[in-house]
Amino acid sequence: MAAYTNFFGARDGSIICYENEKLQDRSDPRDRIQWSDIIFQAFEQEAIRKHQPITSLRTIWRFHVVNSTTRKIVGEANTLGAPKVGPYFIEHSPSGSRDRGFFALLGCPNGSGIVRMLADHCVGLGMKTIESVRILKSGDPLIMYFVLASHEPTPSMKRPQKSVAGQRRAAERQKRERPGGAQDSSTLANT
Fold it and tell me: Alpha-carbon distance 96 to 44, whole Å?
């Protein structure tokens, strides 16, 4: 089994995360690229190949969710707020009911990587937020998907930059790639 199996639909604006088993990744953990960076780069390449704007991303699906922490949080999320229950899915969103289950789902192992990707790659993806998290009522395996919303920057907003964590990861990667430790001026300016 592969450590990562994902599908990218640039025309539909979707990423389908089918199998993502970090524990099966045989690369050295010190050299391992963050999941959020891998997914972003793969979607970006697909968008370029299909002549689609990278800002078209609208949904991120997580299929075959087996992470026990995520599954526990999904089970508890319904008690932390008032999600909308539809015929095919349960929807958690931040609006209206102050659904604490929504924020718990963003912090779970299968949600936090998506949040990190949107924060670290907001220059490429555009200003996006997670509008809702939907849990399909399909039973097992667990399927969840994240609905994204785009936001136009206001004139008073500065151009978004990588998060501090994103800058740190980029500097660490660059250090490994340049064994002499040489850094370019843009990296030095951001540290």
Answer: 34
Rounded Cα–Cα distance for residues 20 and 1 (Å): 10
Please say whether the beta carbons of 12 and 50 come within 8 A.
Answer: no
- The pTM (predicted TM-score) of the whole model is 0.74
* CB 115, CB 125: distance < 8 Å: no
| Distance, CA of 79 to CA of 83 (rounded, Å) | 9
Q: Please report, to the nearest 10 degrees, the dihedral formed by the alpha carbons of residues 16, 32, 125, 96 taken in order.
A: 70
Which SS3 state, helix, strand or coil, does residue 124 take?
helix
DSSP annotation of 179? T
In this predicted model, what pLDDT tens digit does every residue of 109-167 receive, in sequence order?
999 999 999 999 999 999 999 999 999 987 778 899 999 999 876 555 555 556 666 67
Amino acid residing at 97: S
* DSSP one-letter string for 4-68: EEEEEETTTTEEEEEEE-GGG--S-TTTPPPHHHHHHHHHHHHHHHTT--GGG--EEEEEEE--H
Burial code (b: 16+ CB inside 10 Å, e: under 16) for 32-45 equals eebbbbbbbeebbe
- Cα–Cα dist 44/59, whole Å: 14
Question: How does the average pLDDT of the chain come out, rounded?
Answer: 81
Question: Is residue 108 a contact partner of residue 133, using CB atoms and an 8 Å limit?
Answer: no
